[in-house]
Design goal:
- With 433 residues, this protein is mainly alpha-helical.
- The chain has a single domain (2-432), classed as Sodium:dicarboxylate symporter (Proton glutamate symport protein), CATH 1.10.3860.
- It has helices at 2-16, 20-45, 54-64, 66-92, 97-129, 158-163, 170-175, 179-193, 198-241, 244-248, 250-275, 279-296, 303-313, 318-331, 334-351, 357-371, 380-391, 399-428.
Length: 433
């Protein structure tokens, strides 16, 4: 009976990761075509050319983005069981407790180190290039520092914050989309499952294996929508903001993109030095995955493809991929931390708010803490920026200015975040050797 189960699980595992043919032969090309066509359609129908009235363009953009909304909705529908089952199986699939401990501790160190480094890269570039200097005229006339006490960090005590991480009401956490709570619950359940006999845990693990296989079938259906989703989302984006709006924010956009490029280079260096894969070989293997991440602006949405890329194209053991990728999609947000550090200093410079070195250091630590565990979905960084700006007396009205270009930067930092997840997989696969 046990041997039969192992064979069935292996067959299910092969079926689960049959996204590879799409990535290698069709999906990347279809997504790229959708990206280019969406950019062209958005330019023709948006404010730059003006073939449609603004109200009509907004309505058309909503219909064009419908496949994208369906795509993201299908992924969101199975995201909780996908993350939960992947993490538990990753933990219980480790060959030994020592291996599990080594991967967990190294992953925590990797996330903290790269996120902290990314935030400081953003600070250094923002302080050097000063993209917000001389742009005060763009602020609304009634811009003012937020009222005292507006920050959610005010009065929060460290013990309360730590205790609040535990999902005391898992059902509510799932209903609210609190992915950090789901991850914590999965970690606790997975660790507990390793402490009971395999015979007693096996029925539960069989259920999770079936749940994960069913979820991957739904993901497979969603992937058929991916090219149409990319086309519609890109067309809607360009129709709303226009290509010309990027020029007015070129200094800010350029600073963020430069920082993300440096962080990407750091990841490729780590891959070459510690991952055992040449950077160009990595980009060739993961190119389709990164392109899809760029198009959807959601590391969570492409998590199944990231696992597939890690296991089938980069030859990471399934136990490592199932553990590292879901955790990374929820907690490994170095690109987001870099973007936020540039954005907050840009707003401070534009508003004429002088920040001391100590305040900047506190901002970096705050952003690192906020980025780790932030949902891997589009737009979440803006909510974090509002809180941090309020905490340091920076006028929140300035956020309106960067909202217009946030989608482009969101796409870019998501690509870097997914690269970080794959980098961690390659580094830690040696723990399974």
């Amino acid at each position: 009976m046990s041997d039969h189960y192992e064979l069935s699980a292996g067959q299910l595992h092969q079926q689960r990761f049959r996204l590879r043919p799409w990535i290698r032969t069709r999906l990347w090309a279809q997504v790229l075509a959708g990206l280019v066509l969406g950019l062209l359609a958005g330019t023709l129908l948006g404010p730059d050319v003006g073939l449609l009235e603004p109200a009509t363009a907004e309505a058309v953009g909503g219909w064009l983005a419908l496949p994208g909304q369906l795509f993201l909705g299908l992924i969101a529908m199975v995201l909780v069981p996908l993350i939960f089952a992947s993490i538990v199986q990753g933990l219980t699939g480790a060959d030994s407790g020592a291996e599990l401990k080594a991967v967990g501790l190294r992953l925590a160190g990797f996330i903290l180190a790269t996120t902290l480094a990314a935030a400081w890269i953003g600070v250094v570039l923002a302080q050097w290039l000063r993209p917000g200097a001389g742009m005060a005229a763009l602020l609304p006339a009634d811009a003012s520092p937020p009222a005292a006490g507006a920050s959610p960090f005010a009065g929060a005590r460290a013990p309360d914050i730590i205790a609040g991480i535990l999902p005391t009401n898992p059902t509510a956490s799932i209903a609210q989309g609190d992915m950090l709570a789901v991850v914590v619950l999965a970690l606790l359940v997975g660790l507990a499952a390793t402490q009971v006999s395999r015979e007693r845990a096996e029925p539960f693990l069989k259920v999770l294996d079936a749940l994960l296989s069913i979820a991957m079938v739904i993901v497979k259906w969603a992937m058929f929508l991916a090219p149409f989703a990319v086309f519609g989302l890109m067309a809607q984006l360009v129709m709303r903001i226009g290509l010309s709006s990027l020029a007015g924010m070129s200094s800010y956009v350029g600073t963020v993109l430069l920082g993300l490029a440096l962080l990407m280079a750091l990841y490729l260096l780590l891959i070459g030095l510690f991952g055992g894969v040449r950077p160009f070989a990595f980009l060739k293997a993961a190119g389709g995955n990164l392109l899809l991440a760029f198009s959807t602006s959601s590391s969570s949405a492409v998590m199944p493809v990231t696992i597939d890329t890690a296991v089938n194209r980069l030859h990471v053991p399934a136990a490592i991929g199932n553990l590292v990728v879901p955790l990374g999609a929820t907690m490994n947000m170095a690109g987001t931390a870099l973007y936020q550090s540039v954005a907050i200093l840009f707003l401070a410079q534009m508003s004429g708010v002088d920040l001391s070195s100590a305040q900047i250091a506190v901002i970096v630590l705050t952003l690192v803490a906020s980025s780790i565990g932030a949902p891997g979905t589009p737009g979440v960084s803006i909510a974090i920026l509002v809180s941090v700006a309020a905490a340091f007396g920076i006028p929140a009205e300035g956020l309106v200015i960067i909202l217009g270009v946030d989608r482009i930067l969101d796409m870019s930092r998501t690509t870097v975040n997914v690269t970080g997840d794959l980098t961690a997989c390659l580094i830690f696969r040696r723990a399974a050797d």
